[in-house]
Amino acid sequence: MTLTQKIISKKAGKPVKEGEIVIVEVDSCFLQDGTGPLAIKRLKELEIEKISPPKRSVVFIDHSSPSPNLSLSNDHKLLRDFAGENNIILSDIGEGVCHQRMAEDFVKPGDIVIGSDSHTCTGGGLGAFATGMGSTDLAVILAIKKTYLKVCEAILVEITGKFSKGVYAKDLILYLIGKIKADGASYKALEFKGKELDIEERLTISNMAIECGAKAGLFPSDEKTREFLKKRGREDDYLPFKPDNDAEYIEKIRIETPSLVPYISLPHSVDNVVPVSEKEGLKIDQVFIGTCTNGRISDLRIAASILKGKKAKTRLLVCPASRNIYLSAMKEGVIKALVEAGAVILPPGCGPCVGIHQGVLADGEICLSTANRNFKGRMGNPNSEIYLCSPATAAASALYGKITDPREIL
Amino acid sequence: MKISGYSHKFGDDVSTDIIIPGRFFHLRSNLVELAKHLMEDAKQGFIDKIKRGDFIVGGKNFGCGSSREHAPTIIKMAGIKAVLAKSFARIFFRNAINLGLLVIECDTDGIEDGDYLTIDGDGFIENKRTGKRIEFVSLSPFMKKILEDGGLVEYVKKHKGI
Ligand code: SF4
């Protein structure tokens, strides 16, 4: 069985086959402030007297936090009240992006995790079957703990070797999306094999599984997963999970990391990927380092190591993905180095990623971002352009005010 | 079941950011106002061009991107009776069914903007302009039931669970 089948079988209490629709109990679920209010509306429509949500249910206020306007403030209040009334954990402004917070404190290997956000697949980096759904699905899960799942086929992605200098997990996932395209894994799971990758790298890769249409992007859990959980004080949550040796995959892809180079995704679709060297010299207006894809401590460290003691030539926005990351970055002097280089540090959360606030682009402007999406209008202005890359490429480019291959300065 | 209406044609990879951009999220608790901005980054003034019962026709990977259920919600509120596409992004497809909005995966290459289409529940679509029939595969029985009940909320109420 594939890892996907194994996890779903365990929850369904019987061996499952691809294509089958099963009803499963959800281990962990969450709402965020973009899609949460609609879930609460749907929950009311269900007319259920007492809801019985999964034990690890969380409400996040991260997409527009702190609130930029009156109507979003009212949405936030609705969510806070809902969490309070129903004894649901609240992760309020400044605590961080839902997917990072879920990985830090809530996702367990082998779990079924459902969030009302498409990048819920991030949790696959810890060996969970984690997938995004809509507000109605979340309303039903909060009401009765259950959901329906179609058991999907899986594509195996085998990752071998070590990255060359200046090349990172983000480059790998951009390369893969460029290769199989935006719908290359539609209705399927991506199962990764890559023992050498550390957890932050796995989370970056799993995070972007949805950008090629995948339902989930999972890594087996192993000693590195255990170490990560231990550092978060929850070693007991560790369980080893891996696919069977004879698991059947509908496709197998091999990626040899030493052969990868820094990549960049061009507007307006994520699968429009070319090596950074092909776009070198393009002038940019704003650089954004952060998000659930690349706002982790290793990302901020890389950016700081490139920018330390120098000055950025663009507007530079940096948004740690969580408060924990922010604190580590402060202790390590990473924040100081970035601020001295001209960075504006934004409160942990989604920042400008989804175009609500904090860094909306002007007409004709170009932003180089470490996020996961560059759709037209994504950062708030349909007449602007977004390019996606690794934190190293972003920092190197900020330094010169134009797109720069980070290998030249590392 | 037979339903007829005019087509509004779009291309490949129509994302939920195109269907309803994040910059209108301050309106998301006011769905009527939000619906006024439906697909406006793809077609200016689109909402005024829709007549009740029309269809949205896309290419491949329709509804990709964010899980925002506001996208299919306002499509339905605008009076669109079905969305046809060569393929759908998974979350959008599921959200649409959960809301009781008909979504059909079929070959949309031969459909143009303004074509008059008749969808026959038996698994084909007729295009009046070309006289051609386009076949499609029906939904799984479980999904069909949710759709027939008017969406997942109604389904759960009726069956006291899933
Ligand atoms: S950081 Fe961006 S992609 Fe991640 S959850 Fe927030 S809005 Fe979505």
In short:
Chain A has 410 residues and is an alpha/beta fold. Chain A has helices at residues 3-12, 36-45, 70-85, 98-105, 135-144, 169-180, 199-207, 223-231, 291-294, 297-307, 323-331, 334-340, 391-400; strands at residues 21-25, 28-32, 56-60, 89-91, 112-115, 129-132, 146-150, 154-160, 189-193, 216-218, 251-256, 263-265, 273-275, 286-290, 315-319, 343-345, 366-369, 385-388.
Structural notes for this entry:
The complex is a heterodimer of chains A (410) and B (162). In chain A, 30% of the residues lie in helices and 19% in strands. By secondary structure, chain A is of the alpha/beta class. In chain A, the strands form five sheets. A five-stranded parallel sheet of chain A has the order 4-3-2-5-6. In chain A, strand 2, helix 2 and strand 3 form a beta-alpha-beta unit. Chain B is an alpha/beta fold. Chain B has seven helices and seven strands; from the N terminus they run E-H-H-H-E-H-E-H-E-E-E-E-H-H. In chain B, strands 4-3-2-1-5-6-7 form a seven-stranded mixed sheet, with helices on one face. In chain B, helix 6 (141-149) packs across helix 7. The longest helix of chain B is centred in the middle third of the chain and has 9 residues, at 90-98. The mean pLDDT of chain B is 96. Chains A and B meet through helix 2, helix 3, helix 5 and strand 7 of A and helix 4, helix 5 and helix 7 of B. Iron/sulfur cluster (SF4) is lined by residues 63, 97-99, 117, 119, 291-292, 350, 353-354, 371-372 of chain A.
Give descriptors for this structure:
heterodimer, A: 410 residues, alpha/beta, five-stranded parallel beta sheet, 18 strands, globular, B: 162 residues, 7 helices, binds iron/sulfur cluster
Shape estimate of chain B: globular
Mean pLDDT of chain A: 97
Give the spatial strand order of the biggest sheet of chain A: 4-3-2-5-6
Q: Which outline of chain A best applies? A: globular
Order of helices and strands of chain B: EHHHEHEHEEEEHH
Average residue pLDDT of chain B: 96
- How many distinct helices of chain A? 13
| Class by alpha and beta content of chain A | alpha/beta
- Which ions and ligands are bound to the chains? iron/sulfur cluster
Number of helices of chain B: 7
What is the CA–CA distance across the termini of chain B? 25 Å
